[in-house]
Amino acid sequence: MKQQSSRTEEPHLSNVENPSRPANSSRNDVFPSSTPDDSSGESASQTSKSLWANLRFVRLFVAYALATFGDWFDALAIQVMVAYRWGADPLIIALIPVCMAVPGILFGSVAGALADRLHKVRIMILCDGITIALTVGILFAPSPAWLLPLLALRAMMSVFHVPAQQALTRQIVAEEQLFQASSLNGFVNQCAKIAGPLLGAVVLAFFSPQICILINACARLLSGAVLWPLRRLAEKKEPVIQSENAGEVPKESESFFTQWQEGWRYLRRSRAVRNTIVFGCLGLMSILMIEYQFTTLFRGIKPGDESLLGWLGSSVGAGAVFIILLLNRLPRLGYGWGLGGGYFLIGTGIAALGWVGPDTSTAWIIVLGLCIGLGNGLFMVTMNYLLQKETSPDYVGRVFGIQNSLYSVVLIAAPLAGGALIRSVGPSPTFQMIGLVTLAIGLGGILLQRMLWSISRTSSSVEKTGSAQQGIS
């Protein structure tokens, strides 16, 4: 369950909240602005069209899809190269995710501040270019001693790339189509999780791991080429205004350090955004404690059946794709139901896996995988949408950068804690406990949603326009 993400904008890149909105109107309800100002004419007319008519978004989406599929080819090849070709020690293998998480901890919030301060498309193109060079370096790495630093540097490029992508999406997509944009990005991510390893396995069956790594470099090259025409895209800054949640938007004259501090201050002031990130960290901590331990669970239950992990992974991906397609068709979705309901389904699936025995059929494993996938897709789409919608456009990069930093800490700490717990009490009891904890977190999100996400008039919702309901055909 990887963290990755997407963004949107209000009329004509300015994203100024409509001053005519009633004071008691909930920020958790998305309504098309009925009184756009004169400068918003172009964007206002765009909102009645399909999201696919927005060529800027199409370019951003295609670039994201290319990079995502390339990364999954690459990930599979690196695992094969390290474990099978080099015969590396398990400790070296365990250091791979650690090396990829450390840059997020060190530079996540800094990258977010830069994304809000500098030209976003140029940041993304530069990151793609450096990623290509580092990937070529990985292609010729002779040993893990060379591979690990290269992986860390390449992960750092992703740390700078993601906030820029999220902030740019927030600017170039109309607010009414934001949920659809988030769903499409989530759809690509889940499809890549399914198709990427399968296609990578086919390539590995006939060629060396280096070919998969080369495919990733080519995908990044195409990603940068698709973004290249947007390099001169004019990015409008939101004027300094006062709002209930956001306070003042930083001026261009402010220093980088001041803007970095303002990102953290904004997070403290914005209840919905702050609570979403904290809620996400709590659930993610539980999930990541067992995410790398499914092999341990199945090895103890059915040591002769190595296909169970494949069936579980495929069903998780299929469940996530299904719910994302469904969300594109639904007119409303409550924040509490999306976030809390997602964790509730994930927790249910994980806890049930803890009661799986040697006589359990593969069909039941697939059902539980679908349950986990439904929850994963529901949570991720809702969380990305909420952070995009409820964050002031000039703070989007910083918010996602801070989120990346905090989640990177969880990414390192949780697997270690989960491994220690499994060694102490065993795989099945650990899955049962962690599943029930995740389920309880999700149930708490549903019951306390009015407190956590500040619903004032109606249930927190995502209300999409007719163009968004076109969904994914």
From TrEMBL:
Residues 1-43 are annotated as: Disordered. One of its GO terms (molecular function) is transmembrane transporter activity. It comes from the Bacteria. The chain crosses the membrane at residues 57-84, 90-111, 123-147, 198-222, 272-290, 310-328, 335-357, 363-386, 406-425, 431-448. It is a multi-pass membrane protein. It is found in: Cell membrane. Its main location: membrane. GO terms for cellular component: plasma membrane. Residues 15-43 have a biased composition (Polar residues). Keywords: Cell membrane, Membrane, Transmembrane, Transmembrane helix, Transport. PANTHER family: MACROLIDE-EFFLUX PROTEIN, MAJOR FACILITATOR SUPERFAMILY (MFS) PROFILE DOMAIN-CONTAINING PROTEIN. This is MFS transporter. The lineage of its organism: Bacteria, Bacillati, Bacillota, Bacilli, Bacillales.
